[in-house]
Amino acid sequence: MSLNIVTLVGRVGGDPDVKYFESGAVKCSLTLAVRKLSRNSDEPDWFNLELWGKPAETAANYVRKGSLIGVSGPLKFDHWQDRTTGANRMKPIIRVDRLELLGSRKDNEAGTDSGYGADEF
């Protein structure tokens, strides 16, 4: 048996990048900042998210920079060759199957600060 599921809770690093395709498909790309369990570091870990279909539409309509969300889905790797150096490159991406909006409506309307103070979480 094998399992490839990542579950994260964090704050969105920027407004969603949404693309609509002629086929009717919708793709949304986001970055997510996740606080480390260790209190020794103020720097969050950053993750790239990719959403398709209904979760992408939900993110496009309700998620903004600083929104608190929960996501889960498989980890995949995008591979490409750098055009200038010819070097092989790779980027980990979480393909989100499930999106949970965790912040309040008031937070979303006020444009939540994406800083990571002690009062957040």
Number of strands: 8
Largest sheet: 8 strands, mixed
Order of helices and strands: EEEEHEEEEH
> Architecture, CATH level 2?
Beta Barrel
Q: Please report the number of helical segments.
A: 2
Please, what is the average pLDDT? 86
Provide the CATH top-level class: Mainly Beta
Backbone shape:
globular
Total number of domains: 1
**Gap from first CA to last CA:** 34 Å
Low-pLDDT stretches:
112-121
Task: Provide a descriptive summary of the structure in words.
This protein has about 120 residues and is mainly beta. The chain has a single domain (about 5-110), classed as OB fold (Dihydrolipoamide Acetyltransferase, E2P) (Beta Barrel), CATH 2.40.50.140. It contains two helices and eight strands. Strands 1, 2, 3, 4, 5, 6, 7 and 8 form an eight-stranded mixed beta sheet that branches.
Sum this structure up briefly.
This protein has 121 residues and is mainly β.
Keywords, please?
globular, single chain, eight-stranded mixed sheet, disordered C terminus, 8 strands, 121 residues
